[in-house]
Amino acid sequence: MLLEPSKAKAKLKEVNKALNKNPVDVAALRKLCISPGGLICSEARQKVWPHLLDVAESKIGYPQDLRRHKECRQVILDVDRSGKRFPDGLSDVEKEELQENLTDLILGVLTIHPELHYYQGYHDICITFLLVCGAEASLAMVEKISTHHLRDFMDPTMDSTTHILNYLIPILKMANPKLVEYMEKSEVGTIFALSWLITWYSYVVPDQRDIERLYDFFLSCHPLMPVYFAAQIVLDNADKILDGPCEMARIYQLLLQIARKPNLPLEILIQRSSDFYIQFPPSSLAHDAAEFYKNNLAISTFCDHALVAKHEAPDVVLKRMGLVEVKKEENEESPTEGSWKRASKTVAIALSGAVGAALLAVGGRAAEWVPQLFGYL
Amino acid sequence: MEDKCDYLFKIILIGDAGVGKTCIVQRFKTGSWFESQASTIGVDFCLKTCEINGKQIKLQVWDTAGQERFRTITQAYYRSAHGVICTFDLTKESTFDSTVEWMDDVSRFCSTNVVKLLVGNKCDMIDRRKVSHEVASAQGKSFEVLEYLETSAKENTNVNDAFIKMATELLKQQSNVKDLADSKDDQGFNISNNTKSVGTSCCFG
Ligand SMILES: Nc1nc2c(ncn2[C@@H]2O[C@H](COP(=O)(O)OP(=O)(O)OP(=O)(O)O)[C@@H](O)[C@H]2O)c(=O)[nH]1
Ligand SMILES: [Mg+2]
């Protein structure tokens, strides 16, 4: 969904205004990233993204001997298969150069940070930065998100990633308990959303402009926002999920196909994700996510009993946060496009902006923002 | 669209990254070859119907990511699989060596009567072959696979065959089960005697 030309122009003006402030008004930029249309065009993104990640002044360079990295083989295997993401009309020489840059970018970050482990899908995120910001500027940015937003995905194992994925269930439960019951009965799990999460949707969303728009949003928010967004995709299709046999394969395939549709209503989903984030912040969901994790057959469960026992019941948390009323209100009026309230939108944007800024300031990773769940890992 | 089927089998593809699992699945599903297939992230899924001995067979094919770190995740899909296709790249010895570990996972997480195939892919690259037919075939025997096959997704060699052989064996296994105990719960293999789920479970895709 594109903004009307007049609105887009006005927005770009505001972007420039924020960029020209001294110091740059990052809070204003974050709000512009979240509100409809995001940063509008790649040119704006190229200028703004470094500020969102606080690397505008950074001067890190590519290390030497990149191709000696132990993950080099796996990286090249994935880079060689990333042609689908490249813009149309590139010559073979240009394609090759882009692939070289991509390999260097990935191995560059991995070499600077030996504690980070490469995963298939990381290359998809790197492509987005490369296409928007070029090889030089991308290194500092990708280095930053890799040590923050993506940090948990880059552990030696996928355990933390699986944990994070499980936040999907309590978020869904808040909005549509019947749907969650149905999904749990089908044993569909949460793995359908794995590629959504760890590639920030660039593995599935077909249009590069849409991917960039989503990155505006995610770069301005809490690292768990991609999970809130996943929940909105599922909720948006609750009817289709419920209208059919309660079978894992059917639901799994349905969800895979939904995210790949070219006309995902991005702006609506972004608004709803922000709204949900405010109403049900990660701390209020930790208990449910842990419980789901415990019941999930697939994964080892070394610490989950302690987790669940030590944590308060979720409604206690909600009451303390004064959120129970909000929930009731939401139930009466289902959170559809029309009912999305102006007031809560402003709050959502402001707070997401603040959280995003704070996150980078303290250098936390997603896990540290949800101590109830992750403190025991 | 009425889409009738008599049997539903779940088949999972495993093997190292880049051996050609997704190309094999795409070749089987669409009949075409896609040069620039993206790496698989997590677990992909597709459906294909085929006819064997006059029976409509629906195959649910689960295509998994090959990178080591995804293994703990894909293992969850082994449990309900009726068939496993363990794939390696004939031109890369390391992918053949890994089949030992992949098959180890199979014996740990799959049901005991799961039907196994060992597939050496990229047989079109004759001059780059690193694993001989004899060695791979012997390895297959030690894994107790139904058969060892050499395929090329690129040149469409043996791809259909692999799935048909798998399905035929599963069908045979199924009839044996039925002969032995008609009343016994058959793990949901045969969905034809449950008319309610026939249409629905076979109509998506
Ligand atoms: N020559 C030749 N190349 C093949 C064949 N099958 C696949 N390839 C190539 O091998 C590469 C990897 O194929 P994929 O199907 O993506 O491999 P995969 O096993 O699905 O890999 P992951 O998704 O990473 O686990 C691709 O670049 C294909 O072009 C084949 O039969 N012959
Ligand atoms: Mg694949």
Automatic annotation (TrEMBL), chain A:
Organism: Phallusia mammillata
Rab-GAP TBC domain ranges (all copies): 39-222
Domain of life: Eukaryota
InterPro entries membership: Rab-GAP-TBC_dom, Rab-GAP_TBC_sf, TBC20/Gyp8-like
GO biological process: endoplasmic reticulum to Golgi vesicle-mediated transport
Pfam families (alphabetical): RabGAP-TBC
Gene Ontology MF terms in the entry: GTPase activator activity
Keyword annotations from UniProtKB, A to Z: GTPase activation
Entry GO CC: endoplasmic reticulum membrane
Protein name: TBC1 domain family member 20
Record Gene3D superfamilies: 1.10.8.1310, Ypt/Rab-GAP domain of gyp1p, domain 3
Lineage, top ranks: Eukaryota, Metazoa, Chordata, Tunicata, Ascidiacea
UniProtKB/TrEMBL annotation, chain B:
Keyword Nucleotide-binding on entry: yes
One Pfam family of this chain: Ras
GO molecular function terms noted in the UniProt entry: GTP binding; GTPase activity
SUPFAM superfamilies found in the cross-reference section: P-loop containing nucleoside triphosphate hydrolases
Membrane topology: Lipid-anchor
Gene3D superfamilies noted in UniProt: P-loop containing nucleotide triphosphate hydrolases (3.40.50.300)
Record-linked InterPro entries: P-loop_NTPase, Rab, Small_GTP-bd, Small_GTPase
Key words, A-Z: Cytoplasmic vesicle, Golgi apparatus, GTP-binding, Lipoprotein, Membrane, Methylation, Nucleotide-binding, Phosphoprotein, Prenylation
UniProt GO cellular component terms: Golgi apparatus; phagocytic vesicle membrane
Keyword GTP-binding belongs to the record: yes
Subcellular location: Cytoplasmic vesicle, Phagosome membrane; Endomembrane system; Golgi apparatus, trans-Golgi network membrane
UniProt-listed NCBIfam families: small_GTP
Family: Belongs to the small GTPase superfamily. Rab family.
Name recorded for this polypeptide: Ras-related protein Rab-43
Species whose genome carries this gene: Phallusia mammillata
Lineage: Eukaryota, Metazoa, Chordata, Tunicata, Ascidiacea
The gene coding this protein: Rab43
